[in-house]
From TrEMBL:
Keywords: Membrane, Transmembrane, Transmembrane helix
Native species: Asanoa iriomotensis
UniProt-recorded name of the protein: DUF4179 domain-containing protein
TM region(s), chain numbering: 40-59
Keyword Transmembrane: yes
Amino acid sequence: MSVDQRVRELLSDAADGVRAVPDPSGRLRARQRRARRRRVTAAGLGLVAVIAIGGWAGLPAGPGHGEGGGVSDFDRMQQWAERLRVSPVRGGLADADPGYVQELARLVLGHQRAGAFRITAEVTEVNVLFLDDIGDVRVAFVAFHRAVPDPTTQWINASAWFMAPRGAAASELADPRAEMGTGDGLSPFEVTGNFGTVDLDSAAAIALVPDGCVIETAALPALDDWTPAQTGSYLVRTRATERPEWWRAVCDGVVREETAARQILPTTAPTDEQVDAAVAGARGGIDRDAARFAMGVGESLAYGSGPLTVVWGGRIEDPQPGDNVDYDDPATMVAYPAARGGWQVSVGTWSTGQPVEGEYIGGGEAWLSWDPTTPSAIVPVRLDDSDSFLVVTPPGTSEVRSVAGGRTIDTAAVTDAAAVVRGAGTADVVLEALDAAGTVIGTVPAPADRPTDHHTAVGW
């Protein structure tokens, strides 16, 4: 989803803060996925990032009114999200002062109806789902129940995080200036990371599931010893308690979803030595500042799975009209070993053309069964939810061709070791690298539209 990130002073005694970005079910279906981009902002000299990742792609349809006459996975997921909305308030302050919770909900609703938040549609109710003091900040998460579903996305609930100084009055926490990020929807497994200021004593990662569900955790790399969180249906990790791990939601004894834990990122950018190692075999034109920033962002995705490698750097030419993707910007591709085998690849751009000071936009991800870091590898990534693939090519490639059923779909000339070809949405697409004589020198299957390694759909 397109949620602007901006750095602003949130606490009088703290440095710049970073907006958290709820992103429920960003990859559920094409109609929900289009134009949902993750944005990350560099704060000061340090690198502070928030990654929001959603994933219900590929869930089976059930009975009801979805595709083929069944309840769609999206509708079923929303039913679980509604169960979360009406769940008891979580957090250490939830039971301490019910009057505070009611006042906070009333004030947030009043500000929303006055048009103070990005969600401006008619809202019938605000529910406080999380409230606690973490370090020197007070954090709240709320849901907005829409009067009617959003006409574009069909979400019935929206959401937002708020942050104010520890012990803040309800009026201060509900103030629009305390709003940290608004989500177009509400997922049944809400996760946010790096919530707080650059003061790491206040930074945290938080997860919530509906009442009756439990969050379980397992350490990387094994992911074979799942332990229920002591707090049950919610989890808070701080710098003192975080570890490289995955989280999963278990409801009624069924594993509903798994995701890589949100990392509380370090406030320092990668060192020159780390950048040197990461870009050693990169193709295209590498901008070191762009690579450094992309490494910091990618590190939160890899989070203990393995070393991060910069695969490619260059400029993505604007895909074909109708793709709903408006790239013409510098980009960087990174890869790392996936937690459960294979490789995860991610590409991002900078909309302003300023790799460090501008906005990083997550442009596409793919899981590959082959090693994308070898010089001879063909590395395809679908751009957002467009019909196009960015394909990084091996040496000697002059043209990339997409083929399905023996029929050529699209061709594109290679520039700076990459090309963009159309073909997504077509069954059994094969991507071919051709030399100057038109000889095929390499072929790979297009990456499947499947949940990414760091967020695995199981089934709500």
